[in-house]
Amino acid sequence: MTIHLSGYRILWLLVLFDLPVGSKKERSAASKFRNELLNMGFEMSQFSVYLRWCYGYDSADAQANKVKATIPPYGKVHIITFTDKQYENMLTFTGGNRNAAQKTPQQFDLF
To answer: Burial, 5: exposed, middle or buried (Cβ in 10 Å; 0-12, 13-18, 19+)?
Structure first.
């Protein structure tokens, strides 16, 4: 069975956060949150900015709920959802030079 990955169905979750790191306890909570994001399949785009793609709204909602469950008691966290088609329009620059657009994950077969 082959499932077609549509650019309108694939969603990206963008997690942006600003967590306090003034005390040892706060630094530990911030590190734990970042590690949890990595364990959930997110990748670091920039410091305090993590991305993950999801197949459909149900998957995105489930992942967003997992992120919500790990948010430390202090600080600010934003979770933004957008389609793969919108992601294609992102411009990325490093040191003033434009980078090539990131590729969408390859289509795969579920069996």
So the answer is: middle
**Residue whose token pair is 């997992």:** 66
Rounded to whole angstroms, the Cα distance separating 29 from 74 reads 9
DSSP structure string for 2-48? B----TTTEEEEEEEEE---SSHHHHHHHHHHHHHHHHTT-EEEETT
Other Cβ atoms less than 10 A from the Cβ of 28: the count is: 12
CA 19/CA 35 separation, integer angstroms: 14
Q: What is the mean pLDDT of residues 59-73?
A: 96
| pTM: predicted TM-score of the whole model, two decimal places | 0.79
Strand pairing partners for 13? Answer: 52, 81
Percentage of residues in the chain with pLDDT exceeding 70? 82
> Which positions ≥6 away from 69 have C-beta within 8 Å?
none
Fold topology of 10-91 = Alpha-Beta Plaits (3.30.70)
14 closest CA partner among 102, 97, 73: 102
